[in-house]
DNA sequence: TTGATTTGCGGTATCGTTACCGCACTGGTA
DNA sequence: TACCAGTGCGGTAACGATACCGCAAATCAA
């Protein structure tokens, strides 16, 4: 015998299935005595109500789909963790689906989710509009986009889907201010070649705007700070070229739009004899776990992944209750670590002169300044 | 109107629900003409069969639970990815559950899984026996343990649950052989303080045994190669102490049982002025993505995570079909990278003399020797 | 032409659970 | 005694899909 059913419990307790159901859900009228007896039988039989049958009746499956590109990417893993945690707090089950950026797989997975009659979905939208996600929307399933703002759909707009993502401005502003205070005047942003990614494009735009707030950083040589090399991972030639370009420009500090690029370039810089934090200061987007473990520890612009998970769940819950929900941009935070030091040949940075030992993993968090989100004067 | 049902399709196609069901499953006798018409209506209505209702009837839910300690750990994320991928190939859905090593959460999650009437489960067992997993077993649900061999249960034995894990021997043998060939004679294993972890204990035992195969490596000073410091992460004092101990012992090469420790210590070593791969050679367990990106790239003993996922799924499928399934140990592989070089002051290592540039990310894979798994002469 | 077989399809019980209806019994009031 | 409200519980119809039974019509053999 595999699973015990409500009928088995009823038989053994000498009551009807209705009574067992009442004992389970604390609904309707039932005597204390009967309830205790039924509960005891439930314990004895290790009975667990069949959530499939239950949800068929109630029209709610208590399940939410989470669609991400790749669970192996530690950023998305963090995201999945916080979303799952938050949903669990609301007695909702998370169905994690890794679409691998493959439309056919996404199709299959969304089909599975629809088959399970999920109550809602949290989706990391792919760069190109996804027909699979459109299917979710057409079914009227509440959807929240997370992490990325999708480009306008084929039918003109992204619809009324709320987006929860990170605003790079606050973090970039703090980072650039810190670099400026440390005497850096030539700061270069290194963005990927993925210029079809809205996220990277925005980071570049905001970087330029924030840089221009400091007149002495806006000389012609750094006017176009974006370097877009043929940025395939693991390319030795590319890394060498990057180092040459930085030297030529007289760059003393770099900001990486993509954490993976930072990790790779790190080795190249060290291999070229540069001491990170002294000869070259370095800031990366995304606070990966290893960044605080490495020596020197890496300064980052953090996305507050855990909050993003919590907020997206809250937004989804609103939608599921039929309430209105608005898009929300979370502040990014600049976290200063050892990889940022005073600019070489500069009188600045008295607070941390060269050679001063810094505690490993020591953090100095610089919160992004609060303020309006998006509307510039 | 939310979801279309089989009845909606039947009405619209002018047939009975039985006929629609036949068109869906290609079962029973149905004319080509009718099937096409029904299929077209299914397209029009974007109908997706309700897998809950379907599975209620068939006694199979087509869902498998995956119980892991933490999805944020990139090792488990890799594992989850390969398991999910492999299950998807067999039209099975994966329900990823992160137990956080918290028994109460594990209880809740297993309860959910039972409520969904999962067809099977793949479980990374916790160090201590888990009552939640016992519940799965008592329900007669097929279970496969993965990655860790659980200690004997409270009732004497682990039962007839197959285990799919990694055999550290092949990788350690290759690693030690390579280190020996490079002239290293003092090799130290750095294991965590978690001596209640069977995995770490075994790695230590095997390390000692493999080391003793080389008489010139087994002098009294390295007889007890395990260092067990108060190994809390982020402790500066600990890292300094580690460096001192290594210097005192004359260690020229270290092997880390835990990848996280390797990452942390890496910075300390470099901070102490040591050049990894020249002054000190370094090998770590687990092939994390960053290890091949760092400079110098880190030599590792890899667990073949993708194969582990595939094999555990295959094992589970056997159990689900009612067939017998045996435990299996997968070979670990030694992957040599830049972090291993000739021992300082040694004539060995002619193939890679000091100073010879090594290509970034250049791999030289040394397969562990095949052989019997576990039975020593 | 008759009987047997095959083909195509509809009706219905069933999976496990909950919501609703309604019955029997108790106890209080007129 | 008759009436009524309240309590505790059982019976049953859904939820959506499938498997089985069985009925017509078509096809075939004799």
Automatic annotation (TrEMBL), chains A, B:
This is LacI family DNA-binding transcriptional regulator. It comes from the Bacteria. Keywords: DNA-binding, Repressor, Transcription, Transcription regulation. GO terms for molecular function: DNA binding. SUPFAM superfamilies: lambda repressor-like DNA-binding domains, Periplasmic binding protein-like I. It holds the Pfam family LacI. InterPro entries: HTH_LacI, LacI/GalR-like_sensor, Lambda_DNA-bd_dom_sf, Peripla_BP_I. The lineage of its organism: Bacteria, Bacillati, Actinomycetota, Actinomycetes, Bifidobacteriales. CDD domains: HTH_LacI. Residues 4-58 form the HTH lacI-type domain. Residues 339-377 are annotated as: Disordered. It comes from Bifidobacterium favimelis. Coiled coil: none annotated.
């Amino acid at each position: 015998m595999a699973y015990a059913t409500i009928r088995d419990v009823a038989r053994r307790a000498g009551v009807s299935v209705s009574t067992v159901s009442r004992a389970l859900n604390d609904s309707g009228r039932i005597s204390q005595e009967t309830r205790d007896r039924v509960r005891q039988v439930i314990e004895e039989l290790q009975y667990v109500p069949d959530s499939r049958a239950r949800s068929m009746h109630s029209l709610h499956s208590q399940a939410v789909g989470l669609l991400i590109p790749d669970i192996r990417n530690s950023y998305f893993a963090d995201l999945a963790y916080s979303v799952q945690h938050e949903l669990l707090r609301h007695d909702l089950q998370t169905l994690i689906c890794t679409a691998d950026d493959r439309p056919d797989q996404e199709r299959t997975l969304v089909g599975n989710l629809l088959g399970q009659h999920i109550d809602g979905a949290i989706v990391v939208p792919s760069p190109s509009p996804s027909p699979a996600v459109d299917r979710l929307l057409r079914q009227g399933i509440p959807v929240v986009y997370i992490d990325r703002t999708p480009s306008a759909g084929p039918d003109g707009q992204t619809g009324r889907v709320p987006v929860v993502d990170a605003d790079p401005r606050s973090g970039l502003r703090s980072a650039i201010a810190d670099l400026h205070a440390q005497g850096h005047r030539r700061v270069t942003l290194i963005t990927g070649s993925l210029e079809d990614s809205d996220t990277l494009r925005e980071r570049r735009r905001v970087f330029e705007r924030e840089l221009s707030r400091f007149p002495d950083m806006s000389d012609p040589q750094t006017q176009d700070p974006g370097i877009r090399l043929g940025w395939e991972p693991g390319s030795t030639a590319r890394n060498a070229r990057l180092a040459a370009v930085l030297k030529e420009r007289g760059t003393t500090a770099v900001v990486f739009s993509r954490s993976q690029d930072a990790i790779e370039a790190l080795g190249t810089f060290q291999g070229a004899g540069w001491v990170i934090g002294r000869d070259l200061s370095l800031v990366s987007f995304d606070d990966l776990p290893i960044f605080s473990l490495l020596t020197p520890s890496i300064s980052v612009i953090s996305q507050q992944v855990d909050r993003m998970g919590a907020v997206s769940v809250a937004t989804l819950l609103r939608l599921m209750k039929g309430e209105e929900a608005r898009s929300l941009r979370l502040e990014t935070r600049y976290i200063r670590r050892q990889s940022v030091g005073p600019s070489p040949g500069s009188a600045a940075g008295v607070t941390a002169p060269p050679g001063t030992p810094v505690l490993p993993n020591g953090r100095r968090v610089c919160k992004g300044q609060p303020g309006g989100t998006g509307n510039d004067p």
